[in-house]
Specification:
- With about 80 residues, this protein is α+β, with helices and mostly antiparallel strands.
- It contains 2 helices and 4 strands; from the N terminus they run βαβββα.
- The protein has helices at about 10-25, 65-75; strands spanning about 1-5, 30-35, 50, 55-60.
- Strands 2-1-3-4 form a 4-stranded mixed β-sheet.
- The protein is globular and about 30 Å long.
Length: about 80
C-alpha cells in the first residue's frame, strides 16, 4: 500500500500525515507513507490532499476524521 500526503508542509498537511500513520497502525497493515511537497500540481491545486494507491481520496479543508482516513485505506485493500 502506498499513501501520499500532498501539501507544502503546513500544519494541516502534518496533521493529515499523522492521521495516515495512525490509521495504518490501527488497521495493522504495512504501508509506505510519503509526504509530497514538490509535485502537488500533478494531483491537485488544493491542499492538503491524500492519495491512496494512486487514487486521490481527499483534498482541501476540512480535514477528514481518523475514521474516514481508515475508510479510504480499507477501500484500497479490497
Amino acid at each position: 500500500m502506498e499513501i501520499r500526503v500532498l501539501g507544502p508542509g503546513c500544519a494541516n498537511c502534518e496533521k493529515l500525515a499523522e492521521m495516515a500513520k495512525k490509521a495504518v497502525k490501527e488497521l495493522g497493515i504495512e504501508a509506505k507513507i510519503e509526504k509530497i511537497t514538490q509535485e502537488i500540481m500533478r494531483y491537485t491545486m488544493s491542499t492538503p490532499g491524500l492519495v491512496v494507491n494512486g487514487k486521490l481520496k481527499h483534498l482541501g479543508k476540512p480535514l477528514p476524521s481518523l475514521e474516514k482516513v481508515k475508510e479510504f485505506i480499507k477501500q484500497e485493500m479490497e
